[in-house]
């Protein structure tokens, strides 16, 4: 009987200890600083776990004084996740707080461009430039890529050259590389991408350079370049889709399916990824 009571006693102690551990973990999570939460969010973001990234940014929103910044973090994460309606709502919340933030209008314009809402995108980019005429991203990444998507490469090139005049950055080299590729000037395109990578070895220029090699039929170089993006920067559905195109050209259908499935894990609502996977099944 004494033995039985002793076992009950130690079992009760063990249960209390387990509950205490979970309680401590819970408290430590709630007590994390905003800086620590941001670091954690960035790690999930790099892993492509947008759901957990959103959860952490929502926690930051609930406790930070910088509501504008928190809304922008949420907006951009939703945008990369492909949740365009949620992203638009967050951008508009940020603009309610600060209607004179040219960068918010630039990012909102990017979202509208991805949604094929070209008039709204153009309006947002021009609003950004009205606020800040030296916003090179509104010229290049904004109007430059918008006019490219609309089939006006000459106007797109003008926008990127204007952006480059303001800021000869890695990003604007990359933009020029994209436009020259669209125009069929592969030699000049490759120069621009490589110049961008000289400035920043972790530039997203790997994606454009990979597409250039793919279009030239240099499949080994294309595969290597897309994989460098994934290894050096982050997982991105668009890059897995591009990698799948290499595998399809080489007849590696199983590899292509795997790449497209990963693209859909990262962006489950993307219709292009869905259709591409159906086409090879």
Describe the model.
Helices cover 81% and strands 0% of the residues. Helix 3 runs antiparallel to helix 4, helix 4 (67-81) packs antiparallel against helix 5 and helix 8 (136-149) runs parallel beside helix 10 (170-182). The chain is mainly α and 281 residues long. The protein is globular, with a radius of gyration of 24 Å. It starts with a helix and ends with a helix.
Concise synopsis of the structure shown:
The chain is 81% helix and 0% strand. It is mostly helical and 281 residues long.
Q: Return residue spans where pLDDT drops below 50 for at least 5 consecutive residues.
A: 2-6, 20-29
Number of beta strands = 0
Query: What average pLDDT do the residues reach?
Result: 89
Strand content: under 5%
Main sheet characteristics: none
| Number of helices, where a helix is a run of at least 4 consecutive DSSP H or I residues | 16
Structural class: mainly alpha
Taking the alpha carbons of the first and last residues, their distance comes to 67 Å
Radius of gyration: 24 Å
Shape: globular
